[in-house]
Amino acid sequence: MRNTTKTLTTVLAAGALALGAAACSPSSSNDKNGALVVAASPVPHAEILNYVKDHLADKAGLKLEVREFTDYNTPNLSTQDGSVGANYFQNQPFLDDFNKKKGTDIVPVVTVHLEPLGLYSHKVKKAGELKKGATVAVPSDTVNEARALKLLDANGVIKLKSGVGNEATPKDIVTNPKGLKFKELEAAQLPRSLDDVDAAVVNGNYAIEAHLKPAKDAILIESPKNNPYANFLAVKKGNEDDPRVKKLAKLLTSPEVKKYIKDQYQGSVLPSF
Predict the structure, then answer these.
(1) Cellular component GO terms, alphabetically (predicted)?
(2) What is the pLDDT of residue 4?
(3) CA distance 265 to 272
(4) Are 136 and 202 contacting, i.e. CB atoms less than 8 angstroms apart?
């Protein structure tokens, strides 16, 4: 057993070194003549980036590589350590919280779109139909949980204490007429929870991945007016002037991309430029 463990450890270590070498390959953020590698959530971020790659990048002289991630931590960590040159998946309150907690220095470059957060249910058609003691699933990360609770507050389902910010939790609820119970889940798990809870507040990208149509299926949805949760292209501080980043920023806010977002997502994703 001891020899087997030692052998396994050696293999794993070698694998880790290989992955590290791959992360520092010529396509990484350090090679300004190589492809710009961008970490992105699959939907809609990677889809939008792949549209740029397939239809606009060559003409602009941009080599683009899109790497998909399904969590909200790895893209920023990979941007910070240089494994990727940029990321596209997050909003400003989330980034502010991440930088504060992780000691990273990721900065936004250009704002591209908004994915309205929505309340979904397989059991009721209106929020007012939720029964007393119903269970509502919400994202477990700090900013998106606060965002979910603010959505419920804005629609009169609950009331949060005055002045609560982007760190609001169920403990900040001062009025809860239906005695709702809140279940905290990783954001990616929320669509799969709909059969097990009475309702769930789901981020737009995960809703779309689960074949939900926010503009049609959500029983409550965020208003885009003065919404601080628009998603942007981001880089490690100091890389804002990378010529590849500037080219991508211009393409992501082009008329062609605006039309693509409107046509492709039919109101489930909204251009923010």
Answers:
(1) membrane
(2) 36
(3) 14
(4) no
User: How far is Cα 82 from Cα 28, in angstroms, rounded to an integer?
Assistant: 7
In-domain check, residue 60? yes
Return the pLDDT at 33: 80
Phi then psi dihedrals of residue 248, to 5 deg: -65, -40
pLDDT at 30: 61
Name the token pair of 206: 């995960």
Q: Is the pTM of this model over 0.70?
A: yes
Domain of 239 in residue numbering reads as 34-114+226-269
Q: What is the pLDDT of residue 267?
A: 86
pLDDT digits (tens, 9 = 90+) for 24-45: 343 445 677 899 999 999 999 9
Same domain, 143 and 94: no
Please identify which residue in the block is written with the tokens 């029964």.
131
Report if residue 16 sits inside a domain: no
- Which regions of the chain are under pLDDT 70? 1-30
Whether residue 170 lies inside any domain: the answer is yes
Torsion angle, alpha carbons of 42, 109, 34, 251, to 10: 70
Contact predicate 200/119, CB 8 Å:
yes
Q: Residue 110 in contact with residue 230, Cβ under 8 Å?
A: no
List phi, psi (to 5°) of 51. Answer: -60, -45
Name the residue among 75, 2, 9, 126 with its Cα closest to residue 235: 75
- Look at residue 226 in the predicted model and tell me its pLDDT: 83
Please answer whether residues 141 and 94 qualify as being in contact, where contact means their C-beta atoms are separated by less than 8 angstroms: yes
Distance CA 100, CA 190 (A): 25
Kind of pairing between the strands at 199-202 and 220-221: unpaired
| 224 close to 261: Cβ distance less than 8 angstroms | no
